[in-house]
Amino acid sequence: MRVAFLGPPGAGKGTQARELAREWGVPHLATGDMLREALAAGTRLGLEAGRYMDQGALVPDDVIIGLMGERLAAADAWKGFILDGFPRTIGQAEALAKLLADAGQTLERVIFFDVSETELLRRLTGRRVCRRCQTAYHLVSAPPKRPGVCDKCGGELYQREDDGEKTARNRLEVYAKRTAPLLDHYRAGGRLVTIRGEGPIEAIRYAIHEAVESGR
Ligand code: AP5
Is there an atom of ligand 1 within 6 Å of 135 CB? Predict the structure, then answer.
């Protein structure tokens, strides 16, 4: 099970990847979560990455490729993984293909989450995230039972710095310029499956199951 979730900010990649990784027993490798952890820990990598993330810009490829190269080499990723938010540029996709080929592996499926821009902005600006377990909520469409408190672990919910409207719009522009070209890249390789990323979360999960099964 080697799958990448591809889609614009707010498409629901993390929401689905967290559940499916548990179900499939593979690690959920989310570059955004890894960078935010490094930033919270105050590491040099985290502080450097934070300067880009605050603007809604992409962190340079060499930093991301180094980070993911190390993470993919860890024993828990040998049996498979869900990539969330990586690769995000053609350079990252090429580096990933090489990393996997060196280990005698390939990426089996790339799932593209198709969501309208209006819905993406609504989701991003209303999102709240648990500081402890990273579960995402939405003030209107997926509110926690108690305001400000995570249903799963009791952690504090917060609004991400980059979820303000101005930065969210910039992230969508960066996505269109730098990441959307990956659709043709993976379509040409026959590994891309597009799913509709709007509608009930369970229905989308079912569509992902079908998309992954179709490639096995
Ligand atoms: P990252 O953390 O990866 O952010 P992103 O890709 O912009 O994706 P999001 O986390 O915003 O959205 P998501 O698709 O996971 O949606 P979610 O499930 O939370 O990256 C942040 C930054 O780090 C980047 O801007 C960049 O600076 C840097 N970075 C990271 N990776 C990088 C890389 N590879 N290269 C360079 N830089 C990198 O859902 C969103 C909301 O919608 C939630 O509120 C959720 O409850 C709600 N929701 C989910 N599904 C549904 C549904 N079906 N219906 C209604 N609401 C829904």
Answer: no
